[in-house]
Amino acid sequence: MRFVPLGFGLLVATYASAIILLPLAALVWTAQGEGLDGLWTAISAPDARAAFELTLVCSLIVVVVNAIFGTMLAWVLERDDFFGKRFVNALIDLPFALPTIVVGIILLALVGPTSPVGIHAIATTWAILLALLFVTLPFVVRSVQPGVQELDQEMEEAAASLGASSITIFRRVVLPNLVPAILSGAAMSFARAVGEFGSVVLVAGNIPFHTQLASVYIFGQVESDDPIGAAAVSVVLLVISLVVLLAIAFLGRRGSRHER
User: What pTM does this model have?
Assistant: First the structure.
């Protein structure tokens, strides 16, 4: 039964597309303001390439760490009972609620010059990784939790009754069913890490060729009155994010076919 008139649905879809596509089109138009040669020059500059490299390396490290420990945390939250479980479960969503600049202030207090734990990691790769881990962990946990809920525990019990070890059960029964959810959460975590700005701008130090991420590099280009260079680098991040979103959609369709 159709509850929404076709014309109204088309109008809403057009509005949503315009809100998203018009700014993206403006970004691409600005980026090619000096032609394709100017665009290539902007994104292939040594400091830009160093920023891309650091961003991708840190994002990949964060994805691997979150895929492992986020999956473990999701499993514990769904399968184990312990004191404070509800508090921990609610705490997972805190990075979603906090403004990212507040995360930067928190990390500045934790590992800055006046650190209460005696660790000074500002303007280092470790500070960047810590910030990215903080803001991206919920993506994996919240993606994997529904998968853990839907696991058929009778299959695990049947495998155990046949003499399979815990490692074998996890590798042959549990993990194959969780892989789509883990990959989806990891992809979203990667996309967030690639474009993260607020939580790293205060702790990265923005040192070219050392701790300058692509997002902070873009901000520096804008401050240096180089909007075309900033737009060019932004287009690269846009393409990366688009590829990740397409990968998420592909994994979602593959997971749906697997369930059927």
Answer: 0.82
First-last CA distance in the chain: 24
* 8 A C-beta contact, residue 67 and residue 140: yes
Crossing angle of helices 46-79 and 35-43, rounded to 10°: 60
237-245 own/partner pairs: CB under 8 Å, 24+ apart = 237/194, 237/195, 238/24, 238/27, 240/191, 240/194, 241/191, 241/194, 241/195, 244/187, 244/188, 244/190, 244/191, 244/194, 245/191
List Cα–Cα distances, 123 to 17, 109, 198, 209, in angstroms.
39, 14, 15, 12
- The whole-number pLDDT of residue 1 equals 45
> What CA–CA distance (Å, rounded) separates 136 from 192?
7
Which domains are seen in the chain, by residue range? Answer: 41-259 (1.10.3720.10)
In a 3-state reduction of DSSP, which class is residue 16? helix
Q: What is the largest CA-CA distance in the chain?
A: 68
Lowest-pLDDT range, 119-128, 210-219, 227-236, 239-248? Answer: 239-248
Residue 41 corresponds to which tokens in the numbers above? 């020059």
